[in-house]
Amino acid sequence: MFVSKKEKIILDVDTGHDDAIAILVAAKSDKIDLRGITVVAGNQTLPKTLKNTLDICDFANIDVPVYAGMHKPLVRNQLEVSEVHGDSGLGDIPFPDTTKEAESKHAVNFIIEEALRSDGELILVPTGTLTNIAMALNLEPGIKDKIKKIVLMGGACGAGNATPSAEFNIYTDPEAAKVVFESQVPIVMTGLDVTYQALADEKVKERITKLDNRVANLTLKLLELFGETYREFYGFEHPPVHDPCTVAKIIDDDVFTTKKMRVDIETSSELTRGRTVCDFHNRTGKAANAEVAVDLDKDRLWDIVIESLSKY
Length: 312
What we know:
The chain has 11 helices and 9 strands. It is an alpha/beta fold. It has a single domain (7-309), classed as Alpha-Beta Complex (Inosine-uridine Nucleoside N-ribohydrolase, Chain A), CATH 3.90.245.10. The protein has a 9-stranded mixed beta sheet, sandwiched between helices. Helix 2 (46-59) links the parallel strand 2 and strand 3 (66-68).
């Protein structure tokens, strides 16, 4: 079911390869009103994720304000960056010197202000560590009643990727994730159970190649670099594109199936820190606090991605 009106969103990113594709898709969808892009440390340090975001927007002529946010987790000093996205966060792709600059306002302040004026229509779409979102909720708890929902990439019902138990975005700042999942804001959790199904196989790459525009060609380079690291670290034949799944869900609600359940975040265990404990069978009896993605319509996803890429 495609949305009938434009949804107001803030895309909150730690721009690596798949965040970049999420930005490209959101910016060209006629179902989305992209109010701004907020940036957080995660896949790489904040200066690098901010530069990557500005580079992608400048390259693709995306005229959307970009705001720098939190440079480290809420309570942890150590920032753990992802090996999967390399030293720059976007591999060795050369970009021209960007003329686009970040706004002077802090990302957290932008999120708060935009939420307060939204009349309950704003959707937050974090595709990285949840630090910016959690800090906004902590500083201004009143925004929880102004946010329509949070559609996030993170977590897993099953195995993790940062550790055997935890997915990277949640593992990097589990305290922030706990704030978000306990906020009472409606949550759609797009975790590894679904995003690992979003594989950019040869058929997908052929479709993107046929578009033959500079942004589609950039996307192919991103997929190639991402694919190399996924083969090295995880043994995947084709790279999964985690982050565009969140944007696709907003554009077409039927792109994946969800199940309502209770999700709690482990913050203290050395063994399972950052695990999203998904009560799939309601064993605890706790009220559900999230819709958790359990199955993906892969063809529907790629139709959405390629339609946006065709507009560049």
